[in-house]
Design a protein that fits this description.
The structure is a homodimer.
Chain A lengths: L1 E8 L12 E8 L7 E9 L3 H4 L8 E2 L4 E8 L9 E4 L6 E4 L11 E3 L17 H14 L6 E5 L4 H12 L3 E6 L2 H10 L4 E4 L5 H8 L4 E6 L3 H8 L2 E9 L15 E3 L2 H6 L3 E4 L9 H13 L7 E5 L4 H9 L6 E5 L1
Parallel strand pairs in A: 9-10, 9-12, 10-11, 12-13, 13-15, 16-17
Antiparallel strand pairs in A: 1-2, 1-4, 3-5, 3-7, 3-17, 5-6, 6-8
Helix pairs in contact in A: 2-3, 2-8
Chain lengths: ~325, ~325
């Protein structure tokens, strides 16, 4: 018998999620049936969409999210003991599942790609959902061309930090917005951004105009809100905006979202294209992204920094820290 | 010698354009040179973009805009006396020009299409720039499918009234937003909209949800602002938004645009595509739209109502009236 723990979300969050919105549930797992596997979590991911979706679904629910695990017991020949798997089973330390081929996020399971010696934690980061998000969300929607100017907001986050580096690989000029001077330093000194701006302290419009004298061609938006309105006002004719998230509003009441300067005049005069996306749109193509991302990391063109919290007991803290912007790069919990 | 009149715009408008922002200039036109034609305006158009562009260009400038005119004298064999032409020469009663093949809006000139007995005023309306705007802006960007629900704002205007009718022709359910009960009546009783809503008096969200129980698939946006934020919040997965204008903000200070509820959360969760456009993008294809629009009007599938002001002296009043929403359908001045 295996004793398993999971985090159940009891409430629709009001503002910043609170510890009492979660309940730790322990249960004894039953013996495996044919086709089932027992998975032990090794790396658990905390991501902004775990906040955003809370208000979109009914409560209570088992906290969802990506994790890398190891098959500890198996009655499924395709997943023998020792197999490393990526699932969307969330904040569970042990669980039983029946692997199926599906692109439905709830039940998705796939074998961890061959990471060629890189940390397996990347399976929930640069070579996982956030990696695919950066890769497809930027390349497919922004369709960047060499020489163009790309702006990324939430640039020091799991997705944004990859988008900026991919843009550099593609020959673009890259400007990132982040929320601390440490992040700005990291983006400019370590990741090779042409310019990074602390949106909390800068005169955003002025610094953006100085950094992008020829205007902006592509904008990868993780944050929404007024910052996005300012950036969109600086986009050139036929510019493209990929909207990945709007973390600036995630702690707001979903029925009373904030207001920001309207973007329609820019959309019309500059004939801009703005598209929101969920990375599940490309689930079948994720392996294509993973192959390329691993290659870029191996040759040193892409840095996949992680912000690691140790211990299953601290997954809630890791989540709150990530929402507060404490992480440089991907926030992940080592179980 | 011909005495010609034109309206020169002296200032960047502050709020509603004022009569003193314009200056009537009279001048004697010189004799024609080789290749030139003398045109007498017959129908002069007033349109929302004449307000919007004012802040984008330097002053003073000759007021631009479409007009239908007649060649009164000619030293150009391609444009003999009596030829009807459409130009972008604006609020001039007589002018001299050298016809050239160009898609540049300032110098555009083309022969009035064969309107098969319909009023030649349609050359600046349903079979002119506004017609092409409705046709391409809706069909190319919204890509509507039969059975889908389409929302149009500014629905009683020159473009909006055509978009709604084209959507009906394409088998869509059509909901229009307009600013008076008269307009609502006209849209529902005369133009066949499934539902029209007076956004000034209605509980917009509630009435929209009732009218569109299956949600919205396409939104053709003429107005921007909070109304658009509400409509966008009701759009279904993979919905499309065509942004044609944002007349709700045209009288605002361009450096201090209004705020409205952010749309990014809807863009992400519903994976929406929002695109702004200028109809000049499709100038070479306008004849394709005109052919279809004439056909629809001739068989009675499309009603091209006009709001006609008489006399060159009243073009300013027609313009202000149109900006205030006094027109049902296309606002045009009979010279």
């Amino acid at each position: 018998m295996v004793k398993a723990r999971k985090q159940v979300v009891l409430n629709h969050f009001k503002g910043v999620p609170k510890r009492e919105d979660f309940k730790l549930v322990e249960e004894e797992l039953p013996p495996l049936k044919d086709g089932e596997i027992l998975v032990k979590a090794e790396w658990i991911s905390v991501d902004p969409y775990q906040r955003a979706y809370n208000t979109q679904i009914g409560v209570p629910y088992d906290q969802f999210g990506f994790q890398v695990g190891k098959v500890e017991d198996s009655k499924n020949d395709d997943y023998p003991i020792g197999t490393k798997v990526v699932t969307h089973k969330g904040w569970k330390d042990y669980f039983i599942t029946t692997p199926a081929v599906t692109t439905n996020m709830t039940d998705i399971i796939y074998k961890l790609p061959d990471l060629q010696g890189l940390s397996e934690s990347l399976g929930v980061g640069a070579v996982g959902m956030p990696g695919a998000t950066a890769y497809f969300g930027f390349l497919e929607i922004c369709k960047p061309k060499a020489g163009e100017t790309v702006v990324v907001s939430g640039a020091a986050g799991a997705v944004g930090s990859l988008v900026g580096q991919i843009a550099k690989i593609k020959g673009c000029k890259v400007i990132g917005f982040a929320g601390s001077d440490d992040k700005v330093q990291w983006l400019e000194k370590e990741l090779g951004f042409d310019k990074a701006i602390n949106y909390k302290t800068a005169d955003v419009l002025k610094e953006l105009q100085e950094a992008a004298p020829k205007g902006v061609d592509c904008y990868f938006d993780n944050v929404g809100g007024e910052l996005s309105s300012v950036i969109i006002s600086q986009i050139n004719l036929f510019g493209r905006v990929s909207v990945c998230g709007s973390i600036s509003s995630y702690n707001d009441d979903v029925n009373k979202l904030p207001k920001a300067t309207i973007i329609q005049p820019s959309l019309v005069f500059k004939q801009l294209k703005v598209e929101g996306f969920l990375v599940s749109r490309w689930t079948e193509r994720w392996p294509e992204a993973f192959k390329q991302l691993i290659e870029w990391i191996k040759v040193g063109q892409l840095k996949a920094r992680e912000h690691i919290t140790e211990g299953y007991d601290h997954v809630f803290d890791a989540f709150i820290g990530m929402l507060a912007g404490e992480n440089l790069g991907k926030a992940v919990v080592k179980v």
